[in-house]
Amino acid sequence: IQVWEANGAKIDGIGTQMHVTYKLDQAAQQDQEEHIERMFQLLANTGKLIKISELDMGITDENGNTITTDQLTYEEQLKMADFYRFIIEKYFEIIPQAQQYGITQWCATHSPAGSGWRPGEPVGLWDANYSRTPTYGGFANGLAGKVIVEPSPVPGDGSDAGAAE
Predict the structure, then answer these.
(1) Which CA distances in Å does 149 have to 75, 79, 81, 126, 143?
(2) Alpha carbon of 122 to those of 13, 30, 85, 92, 117: distances in Å?
(3) What is the rounded end-to-end Cα distance, in angstroms, of the chain?
(4) Which of 10, 27, 61, 113 is 20 to 30 A from 130, comparing alpha carbons?
(5) Which residues of 139-156 are buried (b: 16+ CB within 10 A; e: fewer)?
(6) Coil, strand, or helix at residue 15?
(7) CB neighbours (10 Å) of residue 19?
């Protein structure tokens, strides 16, 4: 940015595409969270407007293998919800308010198996039937800065198996 501006370009802001993955490998997940915090610090230091332009999330198992929507457990969805909350809270915490340009959630629904984008992955805040998923709660709570939605299983999709009534 400094080079471009030195050459006469006017840059008002920076968009960060955040196609992230929750990692069940806890060391890898912790490392990722530290890198997200560092990224926000570096972006804040630019003094530019900062936008999360494409936030969606997949999930991998302890060996780095993608977990598809049909394999996903309720407990894993809660971990994803917490990661959404973490990302959004860190954005609001680290990026000064005058530099906050917004957050765009990328995938409304989970990706169908034949999709060109993360096929079969649980990337949406709603399932294929437009029912809120547990990740919706984490996203909404991050935006609100407090708990306004208690994540709950989606009846009939398998995420409600074994959940407390």
Answers:
(1) 16, 15, 11, 14, 11
(2) 30, 21, 16, 25, 11
(3) 53
(4) 61
(5) bbbbbeeeeeeebbbbee
(6) strand
(7) 14
Q: Which two tokens stand for residue 49?
A: 């407007």
- Mind listing the pLDDT tens digit for each residue in 5-57? 999 999 999 999 999 999 999 999 999 999 999 999 999 999 999 999 999 99
For 46, phi and psi rounded to 5 degrees? Answer: -75, -20
pTM, entire model:
0.90
Q: Which helix (H) or strand (E) holds 40?
A: helix 26-45
Q: Which amino acid is at 74?
A: Y
